Amino acid sequence: MKRAWDYIRIKLLRHKQHIVIIAILLIFIYLGYEYSFKYSYIIKNPNMMKEIVLSYGNFSVLVFILMQVLQVVVFFIPGEFIQIAGGYIFGAFWGGMISLIGITLGSIIVYLIAKGYGKPLVEKLMLKKEIKFFKKILDAGSKKIVVLMFYLIPGIPKDALAYICGVSNISFKDFCIYSTLGRIPGIFISAYFGGKIYSKDVRSLITIGVIMSFLFLIGILKGNVIIKNIIKKKKIY
């Protein structure tokens, strides 16, 4: 019996990193299910979300940061709604800053999970054609520029990309810098939009809404083509 327990203990110690990563990922997936499916109506309702977040008092900022982290790790939760809610709850500037902190932390967690557990995990979370496409683009030119452009252009699944970066050879430092820089405009535009919802500035809401919709549509339809053309014109290899 002792030998059996010793064998199990050795195996657990040998694979403790993988076990911890799997446990963390399962927790995030569970929380993502709870909040994405059961409470999706709250995520899409800024008034209700504001009431819930502010009910935590001094911990409201921390709660919102955790929501953003969860949104990135479990990437099927709509991030734009939460970013807009951030501006609605905390104002355009602070809502943007708090969202940026949470999203950056979430991206770091995703990168480290993918880096630690490797390609088998990523293949279980994403379609093979998505993995193949992202890796092809990443390998086509400077990974710094590619990551920056992917995160900058609206309409591209940014959070899923973090998993791909984790199994690529882009460094942790470069991923953090360029993914964050690419996210900043979109985050603050969403937060600004949320702030205008709170102030009921209808004219600004319509203007920003039209611009955001237009950019999002371009990103969905032409985002990949734009990135390929930038790489080709700059001849980055």
TrEMBL record:
Residue intervals passing through the bilayer: 12-33, 53-77, 89-113, 205-227
Matching Pfam families: VTT_dom (PF09335)
Membrane topology (UniProt): Multi-pass membrane protein
GO cellular component, one term: plasma membrane
Alphabetical UniProt keywords: Cell membrane, Membrane, Transmembrane, Transmembrane helix
Repressor found in the keyword field: no
Domain VTT, chain residue ranges per copy: 77-194
Subcellular location: Cell membrane
Family stated for the protein in its record: Belongs to the TVP38/TMEM64 family.
Protein name stated in the entry: TVP38/TMEM64 family membrane protein
Record organism: Clostridium estertheticum subsp. estertheticum
Lineage: Bacteria, Bacillati, Bacillota, Clostridia, Eubacteriales
